[in-house]
Amino acid sequence: MSKILIVMSAADAWERTDGSSYPTGYWAEELAAPHQKFVEAGYRVDFASPGGVLQPLDRHSADPEIAGADCARHVAHAERALREFGPPLKLNEVDIADYVAVVLPGGHGPVVDLHRDTALGRLLTEADAAGKLIGAVCHGPAGLLAAVDPAGGWVFEGRRLTAFTDEEERLFGTADGAPWLLASRLREMGAHHSGGPAYQAFTVRDGNLFTGQNPASSGPMADAMIAALDN
């Protein structure tokens, strides 16, 4: 059975420029929707994180007023999947050769740790070089920033992608005080970032790179990856 790796952040707090700490964790839909679709398509899914730390749930993703009426189903699926898998694999011990694809879900955690995680950078660099599928949704594309080649260049420079937009960050109420904004940083690094309407599903494919703008994009991104894997 072919395997897909979901890489989670290990962060539970996002330090703000005013010195305050914003609680974070994995966003239920962004983990649950791809996981469910991959499993139903016949793939085995492993979880990994820095140090093998199990990140907590972002409670915002369990609030129907924020995450939608279907959020309880996503929370239940995510919690069950993580419980049944057991402790996440340690990211620095993962061999990307064991997987056909790697996926980075969001929550704000990736802008705390994954964007500079050298083990993730190595995995993504190797995955891209091997033509393996890479998926990232919402704040997950922050993890792509870790992929730096031996010469110091960013592996995904010049690629077309999407991510949680600056507009969405402002609408969510977390732009003020953010150390940096993801979409702006991706463009600064040389990515061709595009976005759709706020909080509406929007995905971009550039070769083996699949990205989704926000939680609503999680399922469509996974569908696109499965279609590509099946071809």
TrEMBL record:
<feature type="domain" description="DJ-1/PfpI">
    <location>
        <begin position="29"/>
        <end position="225"/>
    </location>
</feature>
<dbReference type="InterPro" id="IPR002818">
    <property type="entry name" value="DJ-1/PfpI"/>
</dbReference>
<keyword id="KW-0456">Lyase</keyword>
<comment type="similarity">
    <text>Belongs to the peptidase C56 family. HSP31-like subfamily.</text>
</comment>
<dbReference type="InterPro" id="IPR050325">
    <property type="entry name" value="Prot/Nucl_acid_deglycase"/>
</dbReference>
<dbReference type="Pfam" id="PF01965">
    <property type="entry name" value="DJ-1_PfpI"/>
</dbReference>
<keyword id="KW-0346">Stress response</keyword>
<protein>
    <submittedName>
        <fullName>Type 1 glutamine amidotransferase domain-containing protein</fullName>
    </submittedName>
</protein>
<dbReference type="InterPro" id="IPR029062">
    <property type="entry name" value="Class_I_gatase-like"/>
</dbReference>
<keyword id="KW-0315">Glutamine amidotransferase</keyword>
